[in-house]
Amino acid sequence: MHVHLIGVAGTGMGAFAGLLKAAGHRVTGSDTAFYPPMGDALKAYGVEAMEGWDPAHLVPAPDLVVVGNVCRKDNPEARAAIDGGMNVRSFPKALGELFLAQRRSIVIAGTHGKTTTTALTAHLLHALSMDPSFLVGGLTKNFDTSFRLGKGGAFVVEGDEYDSAFFEKIPKFWSYRPWASVLTSIEHDHIDIYPDMEKYRDAFRGFVSRLAPDGVLVAHGPDAEVRAAAAKSSARVVYYGLTTDTYPDGFAPEWMAAPIAPSKGLQPFELFIGGSCAGRFFSPLMGEHNLRNAVGAIALLAEGFGLPVLQLCRALMDFKGVKRRQELVAEVSGVRIYDDFAHHPTAVDETLRAMKGHHPEAQLIAIFEPRSATACRNLHQREYPAAFASADLALLAPIGRAEIPDAEKLDVPAIVGEINARGGRAETVPVGAGSVDAIVARVAAEARAGDVVAVLSNGAFGGIHGKLARALEAREKGA
């Protein structure tokens, strides 16, 4: 079958193109540009790339046209496919029909932790010889690509709640035919398409109601929003959490982990199942939030597939993580530079607390760029100051979206002022082309051997990671 993807160079669409090639289809795709790394990856997959939006790319007509959500309703190529009566699908619908309908679909959903938990679930299945297929919204370090077409019966997919396409305004994960799921959290996000919390809740209510009645929902017990959503599912519900979490009176998750102080770069924990201790194990991931992710993945595979808990916990130690999630990208003059995707205040708080816990003696310098549609708005203005409590110095960049109306903009100087008023140390830099260079210069003046620098952004952040490393190298040579 000839499948043509409009908007093929995006992270999800590019991975889907690779998945289609692995399934033996001829795949073509168009986009405005094919920059590395996705441009190079598409070439390696064997995808025929076509630059620009042009109805001529649809001649002769493909068997299937997949329209990415980067396309607007006036996109000339998408418009030609729809108006020409071609077989058109959104990316989620195509994924559901071509791959998920034939397998047991494991959908990892939630505001936080989706990518790591998806990658970990796929790794655990693979480690226990289940030969899974998967599609992850990030590059897992245990595999060469963010997708895989296995011969086993399970398909693990990251369940994004964002909308599907301009002609299909429903959450992506509604089309993923879930048989089993981990639901990690529900906290208002994507304000550009969910203007209030009630609409955001509806997305998750709709998702859990789509779980197969004979399936299983592994839900994060401490989260009241998750518990309320789980009540809408006809699937069997199993709860998980940590012993350090807070629960309603009389509520106890079936799966619980008791975290132990980090040691030698590992997170030890004791695992309790139904109140009985299954043993002491170790996670290679930093932070209690990642321990929750690990317990959720293990519980799902034990409850849903009957896989041995001891083998799953041992395989956890071999998980290498995901790029841009607490990823150590450089170490210069004893200064460690981490890259992380965190942008929601809860994620910022969890990430910084994890890094401080694993490097308790280090000065922690947090660099934050508000870039997502939600982070650039003042929706979480009050929550951000507390999110930086673990940082010894917080450097906040100006918001990364100039088009946000003034009345809706996040007030970065106000956050800096509040952090300082609470006894912390925070600074910002002037808006403009030199903001990244100003932050780099500040870090080069401040950081010393043993310090940790955490760069938090869901964008490229002006290549700040490389600039930081080069500045520290130049400082060392100058010294």
- Broad structural category: alpha/beta
Could you tell me how far the N terminus lies from the C terminus, measured between alpha carbons in angstroms?
62 Å
Q: How are strands sequenced across the largest beta sheet?
A: 8-7-9-6-12-13-14-15-16-17
- Helical content stands at 25-40%
CATH superfamily of the largest domain: Mur-like, catalytic domain
**What portion of residues belong to β-strands?**
15-25%
Mean pLDDT: 93
Shape: globular
How many domains comprise the coordinates?
3
Radius of gyration (CA) equals 23 Å
Question: What fold name stands as the CATH topology of the largest domain?
Answer: UDP-N-acetylmuramoyl-L-alanine:D-glutamate ligase
Q: How many individual helices?
A: 14
Query: Looking at the chains present, what oligomeric state does this protein adopt?
Result: single chain
Low-confidence stretches: none
CATH architecture of the largest domain: 3-Layer(aba) Sandwich
CATH class of the largest domain: Alpha Beta
The total of beta strands comes to 23
Describe the largest sheet: 10 strands, mixed
Descriptive tags:
globular; Protein-Tyrosine Phosphatase, Chain A; 23 strands; 6-stranded mixed β-sheet; 479 residues; alpha/beta; 10-stranded mixed β-sheet; Rossmann fold; UDP-N-acetylmuramoyl-L-alanine:D-glutamate ligase
